[in-house]
Amino acid sequence: MTELFLTFDIGGTSIKYGLIDQQLQLSHQGKCLTEQNKDGFILKQLLKVTASYQAQYPLTGIGVSTAGIVGAAGEIQYAGPTIPGYQGTPIKAALMAQSGLPVVVVNDVDAALLGEQLTGAAKGAASAYCVALGTGIGGAYVENGQLMTGVHATANSIGYMLYDEQTQTNYEQRASTLTLEHQLKPYGISVKDAFSEAKLGHAPYDQMIKTWAEEVATGIAPVLLLFDPEVLLLGGAVSLQGQYLVDLLTDALSPLLPPELIQTKIRVAKLADKAQLYGAVADLCK
């Protein structure tokens, strides 16, 4: 029997979706806004898209990657203010009831890592940790094919680590890409363009990017010491900086770790904004 999965990626502002087949080919993609989840818009849209695709294609399962903490029953256990009224949304139960198909719901950072392990930069790795750098900072850990999410599904919430009493900030408030964006705002330059300038050694961007990387490294160092993963992946749009970003962070990590102790390979994510779409159906593909 040919397997064909419908996959969703729910972010703070948009919902992406498409079909993934047995050969891991992604096709028939679409996208819509979340409309700030007004009147439960997100769940209604998932059901609408599912009905449309199921009427056209022989679906065998549905995968959903979503922002927020996902509970054991596939519901939104916790959601931040970026998606109003999202907490408690019974995604898995609603989709199963309508479609009659197996449904998997997974947190978006977890999904990104699962996608990279399925067909990306962590493929073949026995263990992998993903640090997603964006509006905030999220973490995800897979060991021997198993997501390690903790008893209450809140493990790897690394953005809340390293609280500094003097500045009253946590790790993600100092090291997220959004923070770097705010620091660059007075200069009228984007993060992407600042990296381009830094690569050419142009001040002040070279030092600003270096200082930001040093802040990012303060959170990566304890992850490496605690988990010792085979691969550590850098995710988020900033991962498009490739080897330059890897080299920056490798240099920044050097004074924070005992020499030659850590053997983890640091890589950038390979699938970019498609990782969550693949990761949402990773368990269905097994």
Could you provide a short overview of the structure?
The protein has helices at residues 41-56, 91-99, 108-119, 171-175, 177-184, 191-199, 205-227, 243-253, 275-280, 282-285, and strands at 4-10, 14-21, 26-33, 61-66, 69-70, 76-78, 103-107, 127-133, 137-143, 146-147, 231-235, 265-268. The chain is α/β, with parallel strands linked by helices and 286 residues long. The chain has two domains: 4-112 and 274-285, 2-Layer Sandwich (Nucleotidyltransferase, domain 5); 121-270, Nucleotidyltransferase, domain 5, CATH 3.30.420.40.
Description:
- The protein is α/β, with parallel strands linked by helices.
- The protein has two domains: 4-112 and 274-285, ATPase, nucleotide binding domain (Nucleotidyltransferase, domain 5, 2-Layer Sandwich), CATH 3.30.420.40; 121-270, Nucleotidyltransferase, domain 5 (2-Layer Sandwich), CATH 3.30.420.
- The protein is built from ten helices and twelve strands.
- The chain has helices at residues 41-56, 91-99, 108-119, 171-175, 177-184, 191-199, 205-227, 243-253, 275-280, 282-285; strands spanning 4-10, 14-21, 26-33, 61-66, 69-70, 76-78, 103-107, 127-133, 137-143, 146-147, 231-235, 265-268.
- The strands form three sheets. A five-stranded mixed sheet has the order 3-2-1-4-7.
- The longest helix has 23 residues, at 205-227.
- It starts with a strand and ends with a helix.
- The model has no long low-confidence stretch (mean pLDDT 94).
